[in-house]
Amino acid sequence: MPIGIKVYGDVNAVRITSSTVQNIAATHPECSTGCTPVARGILISPASGQTIATDVSVEDSSIAHVAPKDDGDCLVIQDSTSPAHLTVKHNTFNYCSKRAIKIQVPGATIEVNTITNPFGPATPNPAYASALPEDMYAAVSDYAPNVMIGNNLIRGSGTFFNPVELGASCTLGIANATVQDNVIDMGYLEPGTSLIRVMVPGADLKIQGNSGSTAQNGITAATNELTNSTIQDNTFTNVTTQFNNYTNC
């Protein structure tokens, strides 16, 4: 797996600042993860027997050109259930073929980043075997609790399946996640897309103050699967449905 920067475990107070990570491309399938080429711009993941790195910050940096569409992510934290206290702030993400950011460890703040999806009919996203009709899968995928996603600018000529998505497992659900004051604009309309989607049962979620345009749905979530959660003051244009009450699990 080609990786630009790898942060292993058993470390604390790691600072990645004013850095440029780019041109990380996988060409050979990684069969341990599903037989697709896997590439990561920045990967935070402990080795066997280690604990997750804590108090890691990625700030004022540029992460770009991580490919292919299946499976190139610009920044990933994974392989722990212990809190990491990750901060990702004031960065630019561009040409992140599958995702800009994937969070699989509790405790992260994702704020004031610019995520650009430059793909589209005129600039196809190179893929290995992806059948995903959208140009990118997501800008931010949060699969862990205690995460703040706020004041980010998500834009570009291309489409996402879900620019911001919460949750991956119907069994685990998602808790204590905030999606607030983000601006999310897609380049053109693709059926089945949502600007923000809660994929699983959620508790103590706050989705508020977001704005955006150009998707089938503004927000997709199942109200009967949410507890102690707030969805309010979101404004979306050029969408078919502001809120799609859809049961996922």
Task: Provide a quick synopsis of the model.
It contains no helices and 26 strands. The protein has 249 residues and is mostly beta strands.
Structure explained in plain terms:
With 249 residues, the chain is an all-beta fold. It is built from no helices and 26 strands. It starts with a strand and ends with a strand.
Q: How many helix segments?
A: 0
Secondary-structure element order, N to C: EEEEEEEEEEEEEEEEEEEEEEEEEE
Radius of gyration: 17 Å
Uncertain segments of ≥5 residues (pLDDT<50)? none
Report the structural category. mainly beta
Mean of all residue-level pLDDT scores: 95
Please describe the biggest sheet, giving its number of strands, its sense, and whether it closes into a barrel.
15 strands, parallel
Percent strand: over 45%
From the spread of the alpha carbons, the general shape counts as: globular
